[in-house]
Predict the 3D structure of the following.
Amino acid sequence: MKLVLAHFLHESNSFSPVPTPWEAFGPKGPHLGDAAVAAMTGTRTPVGAFLDAAAAWGAEVELPVAGYASPSAPVDRDAFERACDLIVDAVRRGCDGILLDLHGAMIVAGGLEDGDGELLRRVREAAPDVPIGVALDLHANVTPTKVANCDVIAGYHTYPHIDMYETGERVARAFHRLLLGEARPRMALQQIPVLSQTLKMNTSEGAMRAFVDAARAAELEPGVLCASAFGGFPMADIHHAGSSVVVVTDGDDDLACRTASSIGAIAWDQRDDLVWHDSDLVEAITAAKSAPTGPVLLIDHADNCASGGTQDVMTVLREALRQGLSSIAVGPIRDPEAVAQMIAAGVGAQIELPIGGKLDMPSIGLRGEPLVLSGVVRAITDGEYTITGPQLTGVRAYMGRTAVLETPHTTIVVTERLQEPWDLGVFSSVGIDPTGFRYIMLKSRMYFRPIFLPFAADVIYCSGDGVTSSDHRRFRYDHLRRPMYPLDDTAAFEPTTRTVTSGLSEGKG
Ligand SMILES: [Zn+2]
């Protein structure tokens, strides 16, 4: 048995000014071929689970491409075409099954709204009779095209995403039953006209917890192979953005539809709790100032790297310094120019320089505003480390060249590349122990939780500026289908009544 696998992930933010070229998908671009297998074997990712499953089944494996780029603007067309060609060419060489580890919210520059769907369409076209299993992120915007061009879909059940590997296992289990001819998957897609906000998608509380718990429970029902609740990615100005449910059953269309609709109705009924209400930044920093002990996490969620932020907006830090906060460790700021200046100055040098604010954000009418700071260059590194925390465990991370600026009130990690603070490595790899600071400012929304919460005294959400604002009224949606809650009061939930099935599923058994 031969399987073709792929790992190619991007969450595209329509409002981000940060481009997404081929090089963004790895140290110098994605890992290819044998290097891809070496890079992903043993990682707690869906493709890590696919590799383990293939080994257990005694299958030969081809992994033509393994690449992940931090969320940013839609993917450059040539990067998308290159990845598609590598995967489709591998499929054309012949295989018995295909397992893909995708994000599900990839847009391609030039107006291709559903990059993952287009990739799946091409793969299916190249091998119409070969089963395809797909793992997706909880933030996937699931479309009819995606569902129609594969046989099994499962999405993460957690955010923060600590079940990536287990999601790969869920896909592999259902896929294997299909391969053996033991199951005939039927998939139902329930789209929900709710643009859920990322900050309200914590799967351990509120509406999102109820939504995901219903999917977990459904997966234990007889006849259900996979059930997944997708929060969706709201910063995608595409027709099919929004929350959804995908249920895969063994040959039972009615069960698939009924289950998907009843899970979807939970999110719809609790939609008020999927909307974030911003608080005032000045008041948030004032509250931080009066916190009795530290470390207090200052969450700069409007410029969140893992949702497509420029990661260089200085609004929150500027306000914190204005109000006299001190002992602040600042999670990665992306500013290649500042890194170059600090490297030129050298470790130990006293330097004054503008930090951040280098990128304008025309989609929300904001100009970049650097913050001029003086301090000492404390460290310079290549920015590489291996993730040891519970998210993306074992994956090598590349921050680009990285420098640390220590000022009287802050210690700032400045990187060349986008980097979510998803692991202590963003600090420890440059010699910083964040636990010793009174404040830790992170450009994060949810990934910080399993890493920093265990030792934090408090968490304060700081509504700054940026292209990942949790207030959707700051964005102009031209392509999103309407009506959509909370943008429109007239949005209505319609239960799905049909399964979207591939010709393959029809023909099996
Ligand atoms: Zn996600």
About this structure: The pocket of zinc ion is lined by residues 137-139, 161 (CB under 6 Å). The chain has two domains: 2-274+494-507, 281-470. The two ends are 19 Å apart (CA to CA).
